[in-house]
Amino acid sequence: MTSHKKNLLVTGGAGFIGSNFINYIHKKYPNYKIQLLDALTYAGNLENISNNLKSNGHFQFSHGNVTQPDIVNQLVSDSDIVVHFAAESHVTRSIYDNSLFFETDVIGTQVLANAIVNHPVERFIHISSSEVYGTAINAPMTEDHPLNPMSPYAAAKAGADRLVYSYVHTYGLPAVIVRPFNNYGPFQHLEKAIPNFITSALNDQKLTVHGGGKSLRDWMFVEDTCEALDLIMHADSKKVVGEAINLGTGIDTDILTIAQKVLGLVDKSQNLIEHVKDRPGQVSRHISSTEKAHRLLGWTAKIDLDDGLQQTVEFYKNNKQWWEKFLWMKELWGQK
């Protein structure tokens, strides 16, 4: 497969998971052509994309919004595989300003799905979220867990998730719905918990933890997610098309422990932890079932939490010029 050229369209690929995915795919499949569609909102940054890829003929960037049918149709018509990351993706921000979440996440997904109906592709990989499940009723959470979104962000993701499912059954869309659990790693925006903690610790600032910090999450290093998406792209369609697949480690760790681990890695005092009131719509526990991903893909996450945190801390230590310009936004939407 590595020698056979594919044309990929990646929406939202200048963001955190999307840019890591593009860099991963380019390194593994240098003959693949990658088209990137991104609106370059505050969380999108072309600096995340490998300079080696940007400087060769296998990369094309289009500045635009996934809600715009003209550009979406044009790019889809020249694609073999579509990987759809484009979304507004911050729980706290969605609580105070939610209209854009439904516009981008639901209407944008509809525009893209319609384009694929009109210009068929080999595979459409829709990046949903574990947030669609709400708090775990059963643990671990399988793909059959009820969808009980607890924030406007999660509701928008659930709407897009079910829209894609309906297009599979109505139009035969060759889609796979992927529900990643809490990713972390290089190039993650400072509004998210782990980079927020790391950069606060590096600057000797308080690490603010919501409530008692006992909310549990299934933390997965982004490279593991990229490997799983690669397998989904290339799996036998009979195995994966029409399926929803969780991507997680099957291990949950509370937020307070994450803050403590980060402080240990940067050799700072645990006294930097400060507890603040819980935010509305907080999910108390997420933990992924790994059975289906292993059965369909032969995949399990490889990088454990301590190794992943160490790699992530090293990235932020060594790339201060990348993240310093986002510090003002960390205070605006970060760990309040």
TrEMBL record:
<dbReference type="InterPro" id="IPR016040">
    <property type="entry name" value="NAD(P)-bd_dom"/>
</dbReference>
<dbReference type="Pfam" id="PF16363">
    <property type="entry name" value="GDP_Man_Dehyd"/>
</dbReference>
<feature type="domain" description="NAD(P)-binding">
    <location>
        <begin position="9"/>
        <end position="312"/>
    </location>
</feature>
<dbReference type="InterPro" id="IPR036291">
    <property type="entry name" value="NAD(P)-bd_dom_sf"/>
</dbReference>
<protein>
    <recommendedName>
        <fullName>NAD(P)-binding domain-containing protein</fullName>
    </recommendedName>
</protein>
